[in-house]
Write a structure and sequence with these properties.
Blueprint lengths: L1 H25 L6 H26 L7 H17 L5 H25 L4 H20 L9 H8 L1 E2 L2 E2 H19 L1 H11 L1 H6 L4 H27 L10 H11 L11 H20 L4 H25 L1
Antiparallel strand pairs: 1-2
Helix pairs in contact: 1-12, 2-7, 2-10, 2-11, 2-12, 3-4, 3-5, 3-10, 4-5, 4-10, 6-10, 7-8, 8-10, 11-12
């Protein structure tokens, strides 16, 4: 299952090289160290979201609530810290608990009540966005303490701090998917649910757990997003689920489930970040940027479907 994802990842690397060369020719500032680090900083949030989404999509599901969970996680931590309700670390644990709880509700309903993942997570997204506005009281929460801002804006050894979080999450996900029984169960459930059942795998439990993981990572991404913006926005993480899905699809995660690798997802997120950054450097209108990204995502999904049918 992971070999196909690695193959797509290799294609992504080739595309990254070609696109990078073309952008460097058009704008010499593209290949500067500061710009490359800026790209990695930019993809850190939706790269973490994509890592969580990877678990869900491999099982054949989808999680449209991750952007709202991220917004909620950032709002909870910012609200608790600025109002002196509790210190930073306990506030982060509360945000993680909320993310896991949301994931559990999504996974339980999807796996036990056979509600389509699209419908369930979309409803959750709408509800959470409303709760996020309530927590933020309809306005941004600013005046974040400096130590929290450093998580998103600071650097260690010249490398932006969010990049370390992204790498840590990617390594952890790679270990889970490649080296653990839980990881093999995820591929089994997504590739052939009936065979997984015959092998004694509790599909309902696996599906519930992958949504919990997605929710937890979304909450982490939300805290980093709030730190990067130096404030928690009621619209924080809005539409980030599309970026996460795009990174997964461009990285070779099959929308039909059962195949893909986190390495491919990283290169998919990187490619998406390079495209976003390149379009900004070329002063392409933001409206046309949305059109171009939509076309790229549609093409990636079509390619994923065709590849799945061939397999």
């Amino acid at each position: 299952q992971q070999n196909n994802g690695n193959a797509i990842g290799a294609i992504s690397i080739l595309v990254i090289v070609i696109v990078s060369v073309l952008l460097a020719i058009r704008n010499p500032n593209f290949m500067t160290t500061s710009n490359i680090l800026n790209i990695l900083r930019q993809i850190s949030v939706y790269g973490i979201l994509a890592a969580g989404m990877t678990f869900v999509i491999i099982t054949g599901g989808i999680d449209l609530s991750v952007g709202a969970v991220a917004g909620m996680g950032g709002a909870i931590v910012a609200s608790f810290v600025t109002k002196d309700i509790m210190p930073f670390l306990p506030a982060v644990l509360v945000a993680l608990f909320v993310g896991i709880l949301v994931g559990f509700i999504n996974g339980f309903v999807v796996s036990n009540l056979n509600v389509p993942p699209f419908a369930m997570t979309l409803a959750m997204q709408i509800s959470l966005r409303g709760l996020c506005y309530i927590v933020c009281e309809g306005k941004p929460i600013g005046n974040l303490p400096q130590y929290m801002q450093d998580l998103g804006l600071g650097s260690t050894f010249g490398i932006p701090t969010p990049i370390y979080f992204l790498l840590a999450v990617l390594i952890l996900v790679w270990v889970i998917l490649s080296k653990t029984t839980f990881g093999r169960s995820i591929y089994a459930v997504g590739g052939n649910p009936q065979a997984a059942y015959q092998a004694g795998i509790n599909s309902k439990k696996v599906i519930t757990m992958v949504y919990c993981v997605s929710g937890m990572l979304a909450a982490i991404a939300g805290v980093i997003l709030a730190a990067r913006n130096a404030s928690a926005q009621p619209t924080g993480g809005n539409a980030f689920e599309t970026e996460a899905i795009a990174a997964c699809v461009m990285g070779g995660i099959s929308m039909s489930g059962g195949s893909g690798s986190i390495i491919g997802v990283f290169f998919g997120a990187l490619l998406l970040g390079i495209i976003n950054n390149g379009m900004n450097l070329l002063y392409i209108d933001s409206y046309w940027q949305m059109v171009i990204k939509g076309v790229i995502i549609a093409g990636s999904v079509i390619y994923s479907i065709i590849s799945s049918k061939k397999r």
